């Protein structure tokens, strides 16, 4: 029987993974991705320092819907000891992948010597990887950027370190600590791919099937990780995976399917957080889901004032009818 890792990187079919998104990849979003056939789903980043210091807070800190598999549990922190303690706490959930975040540029994380800050400290990063590898026998990965500052290309050193320490694969986001206004540097991802022999996942600016295909073609990577492309489009990972496996472009989700998932996501959030908080969180998701409608800009401000589930449903019907009755004339 093939192991999960062998299945993930089977033959010539690139892997498709969903990235952890802070403030997005909660239990409700994990359930939606599962419903939309995402091949590998991720938790939000798991704060190892918080869990190591407050292990009884696990139910509140950990965002992980029971029974979601395959799932990638992404850990962040500055301490090898905290990482190992966290793995012991979550082991009972049987994560399919443990991923160490060495790429998050958020100020709060960076100034605490975690996330992308680890790319300025290869010895510390190595100690963390070595400790986690000793503690966890399943698939292990790390997620990095090209480096911290443009021109300081540290990703090859980290990739070689990861491979030598027994990491199973690496995900490379093709940016430094730079804004998303600058395109991801896929050529630098290719340079990382060329310097190691274990699987490399490419990440950055994947919003369509064509983007995924072009990244694989240009970099030679063994798969893609989708991040911002998930927002309002939870069908994308499943469609990319199907395309990679069959070579056939799957149809876009129908309007009926879009509306079903829209309503289901709201329901999942209310189940998780209660009606008031669930609706507040869903407002941003509603704006993402409705982005593809031609005339949605007329209703954008209204989206962020809604307070009842039925108000969302009425607004969606209004937007759909408005688009149907006022088609684009250009």
Concise synopsis of the structure shown:
The protein has helices spanning 4-8, 27-35, 48-53, 58-61, 80-90, 107-110, 122-135, 155-164, 186-195, 209-219, 236-246, 255-273, 275-289, 300-303, 309-325, and strands at 15-18, 41-42, 46-47, 71-76, 97-102, 140-145, 169-173, 200-203, 223-226.
Can you characterise this structure?
The model has no long low-confidence stretch (mean pLDDT 93). This protein has 15 helices and nine strands. The protein is globular. It has two domains: 4-246, Alpha-Beta Barrel (TIM Barrel); 255-325, Non-ribosomal Peptide Synthetase Peptidyl Carrier Protein, Chain A. Strands 1, 2, 3, 4, 5, 6, 7, 8 and 9 form a nine-stranded parallel beta sheet that branches. The longest helix is centred in the C-terminal third of the chain and has 19 residues, at 255-273. Helix 5 (80-90) links the parallel strand 4 and strand 5 (97-102). It has helices spanning 4-8, 27-35, 48-53, 58-61, 80-90, 107-110, 122-135, 155-164, 186-195, 209-219, 236-246, 255-273, 275-289, 300-303, 309-325, and strands at residues 15-18, 41-42, 46-47, 71-76, 97-102, 140-145, 169-173, 200-203, 223-226. Helix 2 packs antiparallel against helix 12 (255-273) and helix 12 (255-273) runs antiparallel to helix 13. By secondary structure, it is an alpha/beta fold.
């Amino acid at each position: 029987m093939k192991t999960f890792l062998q299945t993930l990187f089977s033959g010539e079919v690139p892997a498709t993974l969903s990235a952890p998104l802070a403030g997005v990849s909660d239990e409700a979003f994990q359930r939606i991705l599962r419903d939309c056939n995402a091949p590998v789903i991720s938790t939000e980043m798991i704060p190892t320092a918080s869990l190591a210091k407050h292990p009884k807070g696990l139910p509140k800190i950990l965002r992980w819907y029971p029974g979601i598999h395959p799932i990638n549990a992404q850990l962040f922190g500055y301490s090898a000891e905290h990482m190992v303690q966290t793995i012991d706490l979550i082991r009972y959930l049987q994560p399919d992948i443990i991923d160490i975040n060495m790429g998050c540029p958020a100020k709060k994380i960076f100034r605490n010597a975690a996330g992308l800050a680890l790319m300025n400290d290869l010895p510390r990063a190595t100690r963390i990887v070595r400790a986690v590898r000793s503690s966890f026998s399943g698939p292990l990965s790390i997620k990095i950027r090209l480096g911290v500052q443009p021109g300081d290309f540290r990703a090859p050193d980290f990739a070689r370190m990861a491979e030598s320490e027994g990491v199973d694969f690496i995900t490379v986001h093709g940016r430094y600590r730079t804004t998303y206004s600058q395109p991801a540097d896929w050529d630098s991802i290719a340079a990382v791919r060329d310097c190691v022999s274990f699987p490399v996942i490419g990440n950055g600016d994947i919003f369509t099937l064509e983007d995924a295909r072009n990244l694989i073609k240009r970099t030679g990577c063994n798969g893609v990780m989708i991040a911002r492309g998930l927002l309002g489009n939870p069908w994308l990972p499943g469609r990319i995976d199907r395309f990679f496996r069959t070579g056939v472009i799957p149809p876009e989700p129908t309007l009926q399917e879009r509306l079903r998932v829209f309503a289901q996501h709201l329901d999942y959030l209310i189940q998780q957080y209660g009606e008031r908080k669930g609706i507040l969180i869903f407002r941003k998701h509603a704006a993402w889901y409705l982005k593809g409608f031609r005339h949605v800009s007329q209703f954008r401000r209204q989206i962020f004032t809604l307070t009842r589930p039925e108000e969302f449903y009425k607004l969606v019907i209004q937007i759909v009818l408005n688009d149907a009755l006022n088609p684009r004339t250009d």
